[in-house]
What we know:
alpha+beta; tt1808, chain A; six-stranded mixed sheet; three-stranded mixed sheet; 6 helices
Amino acid sequence: xxxxxxxxxxxxxxxxxxxxxxxxxxxxxxxxxxxxxxxxxxxxxxxxxxxxxxxxxxxxxxxxxxxxxxxxxxxxxxxxxxxxxxxxxxxxxxxxxxxxxxxxxxxxxxxxxxxxxxxxxxxxxxxxxxxxxxxxxxxxxxxxxxxxxxxxxxxxxxxxxxxxxxxxxxxxxxxxxxxxxxxxxxxxxxxxxxxxxxxxxxxxxxxxxxxxxxxxxxxxxxxx
Length: 224
C-alpha cells in the first residue's frame, strides 16, 4: 500500500498522539473548529454558549485589542494554534506576543512556534484542563503570564512565571492587576467580571498613558 492510499484516522477526544500525528489528522478535518494536543492527549471543544464563553471571550479580545492598537511591535492572536513542544499544540482563546525579539516566532506555514509572552483562556471552573495539564504545559514552556477567566466561579487568575513557578499577580487596592511583562496592560477585575467593558477600557487607557508604556513602545520600535 502506498502512502497516498493510507487512510488517515479522524481525531477523537482522548487520542494519544505526537504533535506531527495530531497536525496531520487535524488538517484533514476541516469541519473541526478547535482541537488541541495537551500533554500528548487530544481535546476537542464542545459547542460554546454565549454567556459562558462567547461574551467573555469577546470582552477579553476588546481589552487586548485596544492595548495592541497603542503598542506597535506586539501581535494579538484569537484562537491561534501554538506549537509548544512535541506533546503540546494548544489553541488558546487569546495570545499576545512580542513580534521581534520575543520568545516565539511565526513558522513558514504561518503557525506560532514557541511560547507567547501572554496567554488567555476562558475556562468553566477550577476543574478545567486550563488550570491543570494546560497550565503545566504553559509553565514548562515558559509562557511568562497566563490569565484564566473561570466563568462559573466568577474569578480571574492571572499568573506570572517566577523561578519556574506560576505565582498569582495580586490586584491593588482598586482591584486593578497590572501586567509585569506588558507595561500599561492594566485590568480592572471587578468591572470585567460585572460586564462593565467601558470601565475596563477606560482603566486600560490610563495604563497606556503611563511613561512605562511609552518606554516599552520605544524599546519595541528599536527592535523593529
